Amino acid sequence: MLSIKNLHVSVGDKPILKGINLEIKAGEIHAIMGPNGSGKSTLSHVLSGKGGYTVTEGSATYQGKDLLEMAPEIRAREGVFLAFQYPVEIPGVSNIYLLKAALNSIRKHNGQPEVDAMDFLTLVKDKVRLLEMDEKFLYRAVNEGFSGGEKKRNEILQMAILEPKLCIMDETDSGLDIDALKIVSEGVNSLRSPERSFVMVTHYQRLLDYIKPDFVHVLAHGQIVKSGGADLALELEEKGYGWVEEAVA
Amino acid sequence: MNTATASRYAAEYQTIASALPGQNLPWLQALRAQALTEFSAHGFPSPREEEWRYTNVSGIEKKLFSPSISLSIDEVDAEWLKSVQLEDAWVLVLVNGHFSAELSVLDGLPEAVSVMSMADALAKQPGTVEKYLGRAADQSEHSFIAFNTAWFTDGLFVHVPAKQVLDRPIQVLHVVTGVDQMATTRNIIIADALAEVKVIETFISRDGVYAENLSGTGSAISRDGVYAASLPGADAAVGSNNAYLTAAVTEVFVGQNADVTLYKLQSESEKAYHFGGSYIKQARDARFTHHNFAFGGMLARSDIHVDLDHASACELNGLYLGVKRQHIDNHTRINHLKPYAISRELYKGVLDDRARGVFQGRVIVAEDAQKTDSQMNNRNLLLSDDAEVDTKPQLEIYADDVKCGHGVTVGQLDEKSIFYLQSRCVDEETARNMLTFAFANEMVDKIKIKSLHDRVLEQVLARFPQQGVNKEWL
């Protein structure tokens, strides 16, 4: 699905990522953990195509294609989805319009006809129910005036409708109370499939209690300093990040 | 300013003076004479005056625009006119500053309500006109008002008696057809106590900016073609055919607890000069709302001055869209004269190419105006490096127990928002258009008359002809 090799990324002159290697196969869930400032968000931004970063070395190959060469919207149409840490408010553009426009541009990209209006509505209402959202949210401007939890649920709603192949979740757990976290996690778990992969960037181990990862990687000082199974997250929870950071210092 | 030029206008004045309405009214003759003297002394405003610092109208001096002496509707395309008038409104049409009864639609007005041309009002109810004309607009304020007072050929006169609520809006269409013409109208709107009325002032010419799109062709046109669409032919034709001057002054008197909404839709041609002043006096508990859509003109200036009495409320909304080398200046002044009045103001501008926007907003709170509640905001979006905006909000507060705020932003589109949309499959150009349109559309959404809302929306959509920009977003 995604193969990251020796990825170096700078912001201005400052190196942030210093040689990331990561292999993600279809159906796998990878958690990227690490202290603040370790480069976690940079990794998710670079993979989704946000501007302001310079790739100085290395590569990221997505389904055999050079991911880093693609414009952000092409990545999205190819099936890469970024669930934002801070979803952006877009006044004046309705939620349901954006969903439909996004879905149709993916379908167009794949040579499929536009979605039938009735089918679309049924699909959306289905997913809205799954995420225990109020249907009114569909007709409001994207994220405008939503609470933190509502914004995160809205991200998962978009994910559920667009059915991406690679989901990058940036600090999805931050700002969520336990009830909202459970709903969001159920939403994510319902999307798990052998064809879909997840990269979950998180500072908190709590998220992994609800979405069980196959692999856990610890990012520190721009490098993956330790990789392991789900147990590693528990160890981090217990000992903090100090011991892994020291290991590379 | 050189008075020699002013006197060119002044000299020409003698040739038309006898054709102006109100010849038999000594008070009006005296007012016009006084205005002419004032104009002759000062000429058009100069950028040396603080209120005109950013707007140079010397082009009007260089060109000698001529008033049309009488009505001619030969050049008005009836089909096109139909397309710009609202079907659910009473419509009063002024062609080059002269009322056309033939083109107007005034049937079915309630008996007690007066909606007529200014010339008719001067003939039929001169006493009322005398009581109001010049009482809200101060001709010593600047010489455009003096110019208008001396030159006005006609205009709109509306008088709604106490407690009368008009269920349909009144639209006044200011149409200019002539080359190098000027259209000088004086308009008066009076709402007595507890009356309610909505008036739409439309300033337009056949080749007006975005006007073509109103004719219902519905086809998207490129932005460079916005003007060109109606003028097939050489660029030179654009320059010579549609230069004219509009100088309109509207005085509004909102009686006790009355409610007036005034919409101004300015779609002049791209070579036109537009000066439009709206001067509003609100009585106790009166409500006034103004919506100012400034889309057209080469140089367009609007003044909106409001005087607020005890516990009255005003809302001023504005949207200006500038492309190419358009210069659009909006100048507002809100005088809180008495306690407990509320004012709300939001002006938004989108400026592209080499367009220039000016916003000067003043709120003056008199010593006596305790408990004033005032908010003024101006938001600007600059879409090109060469676009410019000069914004100057001013608060002058002489009372000590008030709540006043103001805010200004000048900026580009938010890159975070663009990336968010891109990450949801929207390409960058469409994302930019979506965000720009949404920014402007907030002001369109404030229009309460559906037919008008839809027209203005069409015009704003015409400003974003790129594919993918559509009503579905709303």
Automatic annotation (TrEMBL), chain A:
Ranges where the ABC transporter domain occurs: 2-246
Entry annotated with the keyword Nucleotide-binding: yes
Gene Ontology molecular function, alphabetical: ATP binding; ATP hydrolysis activity
GO cellular component: cytoplasm
Listed PROSITE patterns: ABC_TRANSPORTER_1, ABC_TRANSPORTER_2
InterPro entries: AAA+_ATPase, ABC_transporter-like_ATP-bd, ABC_transporter-like_CS, FeS-cluster_ATPase_SufC, P-loop_NTPase
Name of the featured protein: Fe-S cluster assembly ATPase SufC
Species of provenance: Candidatus Methylobacter titanis
